[in-house]
Design brief:
Elements lengths: L12 H30 L3 H22 L3 H21 L11 H11 L2 H23 L12 H51 L9 H14 L6 E10 L2 H7 L1 H18 L4 E7 L2 E9 L2 H15 L3 E3 L2 E3 L2 E9 L6 H17 L5 E3 L2 H22 L4 E9 L4 E12 L5 E2 L1 H11 L2 H21 L7 E4 L10 H12 L6 E6 H4 L4 H12 L3 E7 L6 H7 L3 E4 L14 H13 L3 E5 L4 H10 L3 E3 L9 H14 L1
Helix pairs in contact: 1-2, 1-6, 2-3, 3-4, 3-5, 4-5, 4-6, 8-9, 12-13, 14-15, 15-17
Length: 629
């Protein structure tokens, strides 16, 4: 209990109760003091002294309560009132005296002002006083006498009733206030519960149903669905190229964009369709009452169009595309998790086929997914423990027939002696984030082997290494190239990085900046698979590439079929005009070789001379060439 006055400004949950008790005690003391003062005006004999004692005690209690409230004030008040009532009863009619009407008020106030101990103490005291009055009367110690009724007695009775009524009124008011506060707290608790429930079931960014609530909605819609007549479609949406928005404009812009997308789709959906945010840039649309595949086709087409809407965010105009996978209940499953997984598989198939499209789930996709999953589980430890091997294929100077360079090509040896080729595992490495570690391994191995060739006298050899678009994502490529050169001691001019047209045609300034850093190291560039991509002269000039490699699809039939001869001739002439060497890939026969020499091609590469081989076999190939020479 506090032993100083409680200030309203320092109210806490416990202090509030003390403050209320202090106010009630002061109010009661004031009312009781006024009542005793009025009674004192009409009293006579010993009653004057008894009322004076009571009035003085109440004034002291009031001052003490205001100055320094404590539980002692409650005891002092109740003792003063009960002692005054006892004295009035002893000097009056005993247990039949009018003063006995005041005891219920004392008991009520003990309940209002104190705790259980104070209430029980007061109740016990009142009972003992009644017993004392009865004993005094029975034993003849005090002879009760009934006074004649006067107006002063009527006034005293009225004062007792007013005082008792005030006690009851305060008690009822406190109970009512308590009930009101409980009702308010209950309302707040209910509002909080509803808010927590809403937050638990809705995405805080878009206010769409989240995955948990989506599962409930799916179950509800599936129960209402008649499987013999209609289907429930689950459309899994993934926004293509959303990450660059966060990277370029920040997460605030990305969040605003997601809100705009969610609002746009929600506004267009019908009553039996529901949009759910699955997480990140992934959404789900549940569409009930599907009777025809054309309905889903139309919905998917509309969703792709809505997602492709141009939005202005932070003064930047943003457009993305969407890839969608579709699974239907009950054909593809009857649980939310089943359909999400299968629609997700179908969505990745749509991405694999070029994005900005939709695909339906079928069992064959699961088989392919299982193969890729198993491949990834084997690839990860193979990359981490450098279990892959680098093979080398010679590049032949057509004029001399000698090896002038080599291309490093990665292979994945298996326990049974077979090899897994890059077209099978490189996409898995790119999608799983293993490509940087894999690329660094190949680059280091190639530089070290080329440096070894220089150390044994083959200083004319350079090594070419392919780059993947994914290796540019985290800006680490210049550092990886520099580290490989420093570790191997290979001159930068002897390293050639092969760039696909898709890399060079990318407008993202991040790639260009990294290529500029690498160029400053002295590394050479070549354009790989020319003719299969954008075939734009602008980037040939911009990157000052030293070589241009013609894709093998134009070389395979050269010298046998004139279909591609004109095109190959044009490419060679164009490269010559840009002072670039031309490399023909996929040379497999003498006719193609002869035609390339006739057209003025500089370098050939293909199975006509050698397939990609391990280091020790490449060493033998070079020794055989030197022996012939």
């Amino acid at each position: 209990m506090l032993d100083k006055k409680v200030e309203p400004s320092s109210v806490t949950s416990s202090d509030m109760m003390i403050l209320v008790k202090q106010q009630r005690l002061v109010q009661t003391c004031v009312i009781a003091s006024v009542s005793l003062f009025i009674a004192l005006l009409f009293s006579r004999g010993l009653a004057i002294y008894i009322f004076s004692f009571g009035l003085l005690s109440l004034l002291i209690t009031t001052c003490l309560s205001v100055w320094r409230y404590s539980n002692l004030c409650n005891y002092l008040f109740l003792i003063s009132i009960s002692l005054m009532l006892l004295l009035l009863s002893i000097t009056g009619a005993g247990v039949f005296d009018l003063a006995m009407l005041g005891y219920p008020s004392v008991i009520i106030f003990s309940a209002i002002l104190g705790d259980r101990r104070l209430f029980l103490t007061t109740l016990t005291s009142v009972l003992l006083q009644c017993v004392l009055l009865a004993w005094l009367a029975i034993e003849g110690v005090v002879v009760p006498h009934a006074p004649s009724v006067t107006w002063s007695h009527v006034i005293f009775i009225m004062i007792l009733f007013i005082f008792t009524g005030f006690c009851v009124y305060i008690l009822v008011q406190d109970i009512r206030n308590l009930l009101q506060s409980l009702q308010i707290e209950n309302t707040k608790a209910e509002e909080s519960r509803l808010q927590v429930q809403h937050l638990a079931l809705h995405d805080p960014l878009t206010d769409l149903p989240n995955r948990l609530y989506g599962e409930r909605l799916f179950s509800t819609m599936l129960k209402k669905n008649n499987p013999s007549q209609t289907k429930l479609a689950l459309l899994f949406i993934d926004l293509d190229n959303f990450k660059p928005i966060n990277d370029a404009l920040g997460h605030a812009a990305g969040d605003k964009f997601l809100q705009n997308i969610a609002q746009t789709i929600s506004q267009h959906l019908k009553g039996d369709q529901c949009l759910i945010r699955f997480g990140g840039d992934e959404f789900i649309v549940l569409a009930a009452g599907i009777t025809d595949k054309n309905q889903v086709d139309a919905l998917c087409t509309n969703l792709i169009a809505w997602c492709s809407t141009e939005f202005e965010v932070l003064e930047a105009k943003i457009v993305v595309s969407a890839s969608i996978g579709v699974a239907c209940a009950p054909d593809d499953g009857t649980t939310f998790k089943q359909l999400c997984r299968k629609a997700d598989v179908a969505m990745y198939e749509s991405k694999r086929k070029g994005r900005n499209r939709f695909e339906y789930y079928n069992a064959a996709l699961d088989e392919r997914s299982d193969v890729l999953f198993n491949l990834l589980q084997q690839l990860r430890p193979a990359v981490l423990h450098n279990k892959l091997a680098v093979y080398y294929q010679p590049l032949i100077a057509l004029e001399t027939g000698k090896v002038c360079a080599m291309e490093a090509l990665v292979r994945w040896p298996q326990e049974d002696g077979s090899l897994i080729f890059p077209d099978q595992f490189i996409p898995v490495a790119e999608s799983s984030g293993l490509i940087n570690q894999l690329g660094a391994f190949v680059l280091t191995e190639a530089c070290e082997y080329c440096a070894y060739q220089h150390s044994i006298g083959n200083k004319h050899l350079s090594v070419a290494v392919n780059l993947s678009f994914s290796q540019f994502r985290d800006n680490s490529l210049p550092g990886i190239v520099k580290s490989a050169l420093q570790k191997s001691g290979l001159p930068a001019a002897s390293l050639e990085l092969e760039l696909t047209e898709s890399i060079l045609a990318d407008d993202h300034g991040n790639i260009r900046k990294q290529l500029e850093h690498i160029k400053q190291l002295g590394v050479q560039f070549s354009i790989d698979d020319f003719g299969t991509g954008y075939s734009n002269l602008n980037y040939l000039r911009a990157f000052n590439a030293g070589k241009l490699k013609i894709d093998k699809i134009f070389i395979t039939t050269l010298g046998i079929d004139q279909k591609h001869e004109t095109l190959v001739s044009a490419i060679i002439n164009m490269a010559k005009s840009l002072d670039m060497q031309v490399v023909a890939e996929g040379v497999e026969n003498e006719a193609a070789k002869a035609k390339l020499i006739e057209l003025g091609c500089d370098i050939g590469q293909g199975y006509l001379w050698s397939k990609p081989v391990p280091k020790h076999e490449f060493d033998l190939l070079l020794r055989a060439e030197q022996h012939i020479a």
